[in-house]
Specification:
Oligomer: single chain
Distance between the termini: 18 Å
Largest sheet: 7 strands, mixed
Helix content: 25-40%
Number of strands: 12
Strand content: 5-15%
Radius of gyration: 21 Å
């Protein structure tokens, strides 16, 4: 594609930032003026507000979502050699975090319709060493809380949610992060609630766990120069917390905007299902927050995924793939499995395509995207 601006970008963060730019500048200016950069008031306020919005009591801000999982597992009492069940088609950070906690990631396949972890497949992965399951609430849709809790209770497992893509998502009366012992969120800039850099948070209802997490993120020190744990330096800084404090009150509206865009996509794409264009299934109704809007280009399609993506680029439509390579097929992580072990994840990675999705995406732009898909299929 040329250097011209795309007709429909994959994401456009400026649309949500422009109306609140002065609020953000004021909040950041206050931090700069006061010199309150690390573990300060803005962070405490955001930790409290985000935890409450998610339906839990405590939040602990850290440097990134990966640290939220790795340190969170440590805070939950996960020991070296413990096995943790995770889906094969998550972002590699889920596996990295388990390894950083010195635990062993055990991959299982996904549901081919929702791309979420297949809890039936997970049944065969449980051993005497299994201590936890990390359900990944992928694309903005939660794993079924009822099914997840039944599974965990049967096997006496900790539920540690990877909610990096699921800020305020809902299902079966639960909000993302309120199902299990703890949950991890990412505030990477493109997330539904994104900072102006990296950032993450662990949330929990367990006061002791939250306090241990605060210690671990700050060099293992509950107080200055007293190190009771082997921790690290992983703190969500106050400037990022100030940005997130400004943005949090708008999150529910932004999520509704995404859901409305998804509904428009769904209605326009319905006739294309017979041509092999099938959106990832939504089993959460209005609780799906559509961090990403993902379609499958199945065997019925006249084009494969890569060809369709190239043709859309020629029409000025930016797209993404989340994710093109499952964890066990990544060069650095081949010890996690072999080709063919997780067939649904391996098929999805060849078929999925993420279409433009963000607050402010117009119906006209969505219609341009679908029109370009139609033209590409018919060419």
């Amino acid at each position: 594609m040329s250097n011209r601006q795309p007709k429909v970008p994959f994401v456009n963060l400026s649309l949500q930032h422009q109306p609140i730019q002065s609020q953000i500048a004021e909040a950041m200016g206050k931090i700069i003026q006061e010199g309150d950069f690390i573990l300060g008031q803005a962070l405490t306020e955001f930790e409290t507000a985000f935890a409450a919005a998610s339906g839990v009591k405590y939040g602990v801000g850290v440097a990134c979502g990966t640290d939220a999982i790795a340190l969170g597992l440590q805070a939950c009492g996960i020991n070296p050699g413990d096995e943790i069940i995770i889906p094969a088609n998550t972002f590699i950070a889920t596996a990295i975090a388990v390894l950083q906690a010195k635990a062993i990631p055990i991959l299982v396949d996904c549901d081919p319709e929702t791309a979420l972890i297949d809890l039936t497949a997970a049944e065969t992965a449980v051993t005497s060493k299994t201590k936890a399951i990390i359900p990944v609430h992928l694309y903005g849709q939660m794993v079924s809380p009822g099914q997840l809790l039944d599974f965990a209770n049967r096997h006496d497992l900790i539920v540690f949610e990877d909610a990096a893509q699921a800020h305020l998502a809902e299902r079966e009366g639960y909000r993302a992060g309120s199902i299990g012992k703890a949950a991890a969120f990412s505030f990477y800039p493109s997330k539904n609630l994104g900072s102006f850099g990296d950032g993450g948070m662990l949330i929990t209802n367990d006061a002791e766990l939250a306090e241990k997490m605060r210690t671990l993120r700050n060099y293992g020190a509950p107080s200055k120069y007293l190190h009771t744990e082997i921790g690290t330096n992983s703190r969500l800084d106050n400037l990022q917390a100030a940005v997130l404090n400004v943005k949090l009150p708008y999150l529910e509206k932004w999520n509704r905007d995404r859901a409305a865009a998804a509904q428009h996509y769904n209605s326009l794409l319905e006739p294309l299902k017979r041509k092999g264009i099938v959106p990832i299934a939504n089993h959460s109704s209005s609780g799906h927050i559509y961090h990403l809007y993902v379609i499958q280009i199945t065997e019925k399609s006249s084009l494969n995924r890569n060809t369709l993506q190239e043709k859309l680029a020629q029409h000025g439509i930016q797209t993404g793939i989340h994710y093109p390579v499952p964890c066990h097929l990544q060069p650095a992580y081949q010890n996690l499995g072999n080709p063919g072990d997780f067939p649904h994840a391996e098929t999805l990675c060849q078929q999925i395509l993420s279409l433009p999705m963000y607050p402010g995406l117009s119906n006209t732009q969505i219609e341009q995207v679908v029109r370009a898909i139609v033209l590409s299929l018919n060419c």
